Amino acid sequence: MQIKPKRVRTLRENKGWSPETLAERTSKLKGEDGRSLAVSAKTIRRLEGGQKHRPRANTLCGLAKALGVERGVLTGDQPMPDERRPENSKPSVQIAALIRPRYRLAYALTKQRYGVPASALIEMAPLLFTLLAEGSLRRRRELLARAREAIAVLNGQHDAAGRLAYGLAAYRAEDIADGEEASIEASDVFGRMIPEGSYDASADPDATNPFADYLKHLSDDLDATARVEVEEGTAWADAPDGFPAYAVCRTDLDRIVASSPRARFGLEQGHVRLADMPDELLADHATAERVRWIEERVPEEEWVEWTAMIASIDLDQSSDVGAVQ
């Protein structure tokens, strides 16, 4: 009776649990004979690592109960839950196919850093976005309140003869503040309802928005550039419409690819997935082997095309600098 290591790990990660969480779940279970079905986190790691040993019946029973599956699923005698699809049911949409490679890599790096699988992050995305959206709206309310106070001061800064007509500017500012308030109350997080006249003549309302500004402000405030970087603006961002471009766990990616641009290209373009990489290659002492393994999986034709494109961009930029000088 052997437990399939990959099945235990997959079922655990699908629930967003760490080995310790799964161990805690088993500690609350008892078998029909009243015995504890607890399985230690150390045992779980050993099982998932594929170490050869025959687990006790209570170990199999405890893991199966905690994971909510039949024991045969863990031994391979029964199919995994997602493989039991009714004959007439439609195939589920593969969310991963809708996400561009560089953002799939962001999920993988996040999982590696924090131990949270992509499935859990996807399910939690509405909560996380709502919290950020409400944080952005609150910041805008605070800024608006300060603007209203300044407008009140302007209104009082002119004399009876109208020689100091700051009040004229106050009327214009009040119109802008009213537009911002209406946008906030409508939960217009990207500021698409704000009248164009509210912007300075040199400003481009399509290049940024209040939510993108808030994310940039938040990332700068955290001062955690090793973990998260948010770029300025959204007009040319390689991100969903209205969002800024970003990078997470950049130092982790730097460690993985070392100084190899080809290895970085392979991961960012989806030619290689971290999940497919053998665990032993992720060790710090395996840098050369890891980089070679990634580079070998990058199609030569695509790499040549990419490097030629980058070289042409660099040449164009150099020509522009020369023309300015």
UniProtKB/TrEMBL annotation:
InterPro entries: Cro/C1-type_HTH, Lambda_DNA-bd_dom_sf
Pfam family, one: HTH_31
Top-rank taxon: Bacteria
Domain HTH cro/C1-type intervals: 8-74
Name the UniProt record assigns to this protein: Helix-turn-helix transcriptional regulator
Species, as recorded: Thioclava litoralis
